[in-house]
Write a sequence for this structure.
């Protein structure tokens, strides 16, 4: 069955957040074109999978649940979902409750009003509900990425994004790619639209990243993406004779 939109969520040890997040997603489906919802359980060692099965039984019978046997990372989880997605468009958000699913509706409206090639719509978090050190680290990382990659996006690592499945699957795939989608999509000729979205406090649990490991991985990935952009040469329009 084909859909216009696939809502994709990657989760790791988010058992306490699954029910409220899924209820919110279910509440906005009537405001969207026909959509499917896909959750990827990325090797959780808590009751995340049990909660997803409960949601499928009681709230979203059409929910698609995919599980990794081990933790492979957020980018790998998103790729797993997007490969099997039946939607032409993909909307991503986090499963910790910090993202408001109602913003998907607004981002879809922005996309609908845009005249031109299918864009990447990024939900920019203007006001972060994180602690001071996290806000500083994120602002620094986003500023550095924007400066070095010239991606034109103030929140390139934002979890809420809207793009076509076709455009995403053309990109080179690696762990961490979700933090560099504005630069990569732009390189492949996809227009960028930034839209301000809400950012809330995490419902339960804690972040899977620390500022230190984010910095170490982020610098390595940034250098790798700079190399990729330098080495990927696209032909533009191809003329057939």
């Amino acid at each position: 069955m084909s859909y216009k939109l696939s809502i994709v969520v990657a989760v790791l040890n988010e058992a306490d957040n699954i029910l409220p997040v899924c209820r919110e997603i279910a509440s906005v489906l009537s405001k969207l074109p026909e959509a499917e919802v896909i959750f990827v359980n990325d090797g959780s060692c808590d009751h995340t999978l049990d909660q997803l099965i409960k949601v499928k039984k009681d709230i979203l019978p059409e929910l698609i649940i995919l599980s990794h046997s081990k933790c492979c990372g957020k980018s790998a989880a998103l790729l797993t979902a997007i490969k099997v997605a039946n939607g032409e468009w993909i909307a991503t958000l986090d499963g910790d409750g910090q993202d408001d699913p109602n913003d998907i509706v607004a981002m879809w409206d922005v996309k609908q009003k845009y005249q031109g090639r299918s864009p990447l719509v990024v939900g920019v978090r203007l006001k972060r509900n994180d602690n001071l050190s996290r806000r500083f680290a994120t602002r620094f990382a986003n500023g550095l990425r924007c400066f070095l990659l010239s991606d034109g996006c103030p929140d390139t690592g934002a979890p809420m994004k809207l793009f076509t499945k076709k455009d995403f699957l053309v990109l080179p795939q690696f762990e961490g790619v979700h933090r560099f989608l504005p630069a990569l999509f732009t390189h492949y000729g996809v227009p960028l639209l930034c839209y301000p979205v809400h950012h809330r406090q995490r419902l339960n649990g804690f972040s899977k990243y620390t500022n230190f490991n984010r910095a170490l991985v982020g610098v390595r990935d940034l250098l790798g993406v700079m190399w990729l952009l330098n080495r990927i040469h696209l032909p533009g329009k191809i003329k057939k004779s």
Q: What stands out?
A: The chain has a mean pLDDT of 90. The beta strands are 3-11, 35-42, 64-68, 87-92, 120-125, 161-164, 192-197. Residues 3-231 form a domain with the Spore Coat Polysaccharide Biosynthesis Protein SpsA; Chain A fold (CATH 3.90.550.10).
